[in-house]
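#struct-pred

JT: dropping the chains for the assembly here, can someone run the whole complex?
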Amino acid sequence: MNFDFSADQKELADHARRFLGESCTFDRLRDNMAGEEAYDRSLWQQMVELGWTAINIPEAQGGLGMGSLELCLLSEEVGRVLAPVPFFSTVCLGAHILNQLGQESLREQYLPPIAAGESVVAVALMPGLGQLEYADGCASGALGPVAWLGAADLLISRARDNHGTECLVLIDAKHATVARRNIDGVVLDGLVRHGQAEFSATPARLLASGDEARRLIELALAQAAILTAFEQLGGAQACCEMARDYSLERYTFGRVIGGYQAIKHKLADVQVEIELARSNAYYGAWALATDAAELARAAALARISATEAFTLAAEENLQVHGGIGYTWEANCHFYYQRARLLAINYGNADYWSQQLLAGLQAAH
Amino acid sequence: MDFNDSAEEAAFRAEVRAWLQQNASDYTEPLALRQGDPRIAEMGRSWQKQKAKGGFAAISWPVEAGGRGASPIEEVIFAEEEGRYHVPVGPFVGIGINLAVPTIRAHGTPEQIEKFARPTLLGEILWCQLFSEPGAGSDLAAVRTRATRDGDDWLVNGQKVWTSWAHTADWGIMLARTDPEQAKHKGLSFFLVDMRSAGIDVRPIRSISGESEFNEVFLTDVRIPDSQRLGAVGDGWKVAMTTLMNERASAADQSQSLPDVESLLAALGEQGRAANTRQLASLYAREQGLKYFGLRQLTRLSQGGNPDPISVMSKLVYANLLQDVSALGLDALGLPGAFAGRENHEAKKFQYGYQWSAALRIAGGADEILRNQIAERVLGLPGEIRSDKGVPFSQLPVGR
Ligand SMILES: Cc1cc2nc3c(=O)[nH]c(=O)nc-3n(C[C@H](O)[C@H](O)[C@H](O)COP(=O)(O)OP(=O)(O)OC[C@H]3O[C@@H](n4cnc5c(N)ncnc54)[C@H](O)[C@@H]3O)c2cc1C
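RK: done, full complex below.
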């Protein structure tokens, strides 16, 4: 039994933390939200150069051939700084799904550009966000809101064929038959640009259908849950540190607010929730890396815990900051809104709770 | 990251299983005894003896101390396997093994270690912890039980309270005040007390369950030889900190007679589960998170690391979880559960869990004290403002 990451893996995480800490500042987030570009292209380019888009792609397809554990740690660091790049959809999900495909020709065609940072992927797997109909090599319908759909090169989506069978298709998102736009304006979390699109007989590659499609989707959702949990952990820990630091600087009634027990106990509770979430996330990482039979249970546990921890941490971080916490200049809002977005994304707490209990019942 | 037993761990587990099959066959059913019944302590004594014979009494202690010299992971493997049986383990034995002996080994003379360590390991000495007093609980350093020098001895007068299993203990570890004119943490000394000494009066206290697991202990002119002082005169607080650190580390032990989330799921039935899905999933995630948290801490210890100050959260989380799980279980079972008798083990678990969780949130560091510790030692927030610093103990105000 060894329930920790290896020294090499921790070094990778440390390096990522230093790099992102210096390059992905809050000012940069504000600039990104004010700008036209959907994501931060220069930050993305730096990540590409560091090999992050190649991390889970086999060497034969131009990748680094590392496992899920490294991806977990990078996700945590991306979550800590809220990096406005399509890392999750492209690397954590896009490359993962393509990697699982039986047909080598598809892997050969689509993985190398992802590894090289030339292909950004949007992924639409959850029901209720529009519908695509697939027939004879073409897809039609509408999707959205889907993260990065307005900016992606490729789209991997759930669809239905003309027999009503579930399938998984791949689409060139820049094709002329795709009418797409970014959803802007006042939204919950403007840093993760979501898009909408209509598809009119858009050429589409069938990746899988029927049982195979369902298997791939289920696997991708487990992967999404565990990597999102790490992203949430990073955000939660950042909130806890931010609140702690502020509570040591702010004076009321002649002393720092961090000395008041109401604040101390609040932050202690936040740290405890984070430790519980981290422990479940590690279990999820192990299940992913070893393709364990417990993967579905581990995914639900990781996700439920991490959502609770990030929600509490983000809400209490803002609370500890008082009025300034509600302003655009203070940085609490980035986490406050991201915590909710991640709580909703890829299955909310109700969804994962049902999954968890159904699994437990089936085990009896 | 590897979650499974290593080859050696698996071999050890198999050895333990085989040994338990041979030796724990008397304990396949829950004990039909009330909490605090002296027979439980006697059973605990013989189980401890049996474990010692099998070489499992002190798995992670060094060999020269009578242990097995194995890793903390193997210690946990044994506890996991042992936990499949209804063995008589608990504070009646645990206070000696987990608190008294580690404290004696850290601060004792060679003679003291010789006299107490191995006999405790063999179940020959049962211990109790004479720390808390009516005016000293969370604020333990406020103890006023007085020890005064009398030739080669000390004379002790005062009152201890909440002393678990004092009625079955052979010896006690005690914190007493030797100099009330010093500031409160400075005037304390630590003693090993023979519970059969003249002047000791142990009186049971009924707990909320109606059972008597703990006691008041009155000490009247109890004579303690100076050779039973542990650590220097005035160093009592330092010695007690060793005890408390060990107490925190062992406080979240779980038992067969307490409900877990699986038993809650069973008690709720299909309808109950459907109506409480989100809360159940959340409780289950806490329970499992706590388990994996323990494994993370264990990994740290087995790699030679020091205990992490955050590890005090185990008891904090467990006690509250137990209360929530038990309450939900009792709600679901309704009056038949609330009035179920001993033969209904499943319902009894929830009754007992609801009662015991209230104790667990207080004993061994109350929730609020643990939150303070986490805030201060993990997050670096300021300590509490206190009005007792540097003031001679005799001049401190007292309330109820
Ligand atoms: C079942 C059981 C078994 C026990 N066994 C033993 C034993 O064997 N030996 C032994 O020595 N003791 C034993 N104890 C005693 C236990 O250690 C004390 O009860 C505990 O330390 C709390 O002390 P207290 O009861 O005096 O409560 P108090 O210290 O009076 O606390 C009352 C309340 O005030 C809160 N509080 C206190 N100080 C602060 C603060 N600074 N900030 C915020 N809140 C605060 C507490 O958290 C608590 O909620 C046992 C207790 C129980 C319940």
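JT: nice. The first strand of chain A starts at residue 121 and ends at 124. Chain A touches chain B through 51 residues (CB under 8 Å).
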